[in-house]
Amino acid sequence: MSAQAIFNRLALIGAGLIGSSIARAARAQGAVRSIVVTARSAATRRRVAELGIADQVVETNAAAVEGADLVILCVPVGACGEVAAEISSHLAPGAIVSDVGSVKGAVVKDMAPHLPASAHFVPAHPVAGTEHSGPDSGFAELFINRWCILTPPEGTDPDAVERLRAFWAALGAKVETMTPDHHDLVLAITSHLPHLIAYTIVGTADELGQVTSSEVMKFSAGGFRDFTRIAASDPTMWRDVFLANKEAVLEMLGTFNEDLSKLTRAIRRGDGEALFEHFTRTRAIRRGIVEIGQDSAAPDFGRPHAHLAKKPG
Ligand code: NAP
To answer: pLDDT tens-digit profile of 35-86?
Structure first.
């Protein structure tokens, strides 16, 4: 038991990359007194028990939330509504209910109607992740120096928001609050669109007749390698993200297509000045990201945990 515990009993529904990382980090930091975990399949529940990252592993979502003062749904965005419906009548009065979904507007819409007035709903998105899934892929350091965005609905008890903020801060995250719609717009351009581009380009390379697959593998250090890593991300999670954040992604995709057309035109016309100007501007953006500490200027290759700690979801 830790003197600094912020919550008494943490219930995690879903024990993949994010759920199992929260379990490991919360325990490492003494942020909660006990952790109960559940997952959809018996195989995952068994693995969580073997890994010893929870105090208790239970079979159902309803059983997990009994007596918990913090409940975090760590399941794909598309499953959040049905899980909220399952747990609603089993929540302890005053429990804080949160999630980690990469889309917020749709999750709020799906979950909120099911939750009782006695619970405090504080949605969250830790902007930290990797392309790996499952309970073995998690690690306690995942959230350190990463952002966690809270999107509490208007009128949410400020004490509940503050306790969840303190929880994420204890796990090492920097915490910011915004509206669900603003979150979805920001993440559409910073995360969702880059994933869509990676999924596209890897598929395109695969279909190219002229370049054999062995050449794609052999020369993949030239930028393509980073795309293949992102395109290895979990298909269920990313299907749900694009279905749930349709409007914001389509808006960003429209702007992206216009910009791509401008670059296409510059290449076709041999307009080196336009290309140079564009690349100079984007280089300055990259330097700004490094300056504010969101990435390192060191090459990826050989960085410890480089394959694990780079891609936010
Ligand atoms: P993951 O590794 O695939 O794990 C998903 C977990 O959810 C699994 O334990 C799965 O159980 C469980 N699950 C699925 N449906 C369920 C249901 N109806 N009831 C109970 N458990 C259920 O996924 P993840 O990467 O941790 O992602 C989880 C959430 O975090 C998603 O909403 C995603 O948008 C968000 N997120 C992901 C990242 C990232 O980079 N991966 C970053 C930030 C946020 P089984 O193993 O038994 O199938």
So the answer is: 999 999 999 999 999 999 999 999 999 999 999 999 999 999 999 999 999 9
Q: Is residue 261 a contact partner of residue 159, using CB atoms and an 8 Å limit?
A: no
User: Other C-beta atoms within 10 Å of 112: how many?
Assistant: 14
Nearest CA to ligand 1 atom 42: 313
User: Each residue of 238-262: pLDDT tens digit?
Assistant: 999 999 999 999 999 999 999 999 9
User: Residue type at 185?
Assistant: L
313 pocket-lining for ligand 1 (C-beta < 6 Å): yes
Q: Where are the beta strands (DSSP E) in the chain?
A: 7-13, 32-38, 56-57, 70-73, 96-99, 120-121, 124-127, 147-150, 174-177
Distance between Cα 257 and ligand 1 center (Å): 31
Q: Which of 12, 13, 17 best tests ligand 1's pocket when mutated (most atoms within 8 Å of CB)?
A: 17
Cα separation, 12 vs 61, whole angstroms: 9
Amino acid at 175: V
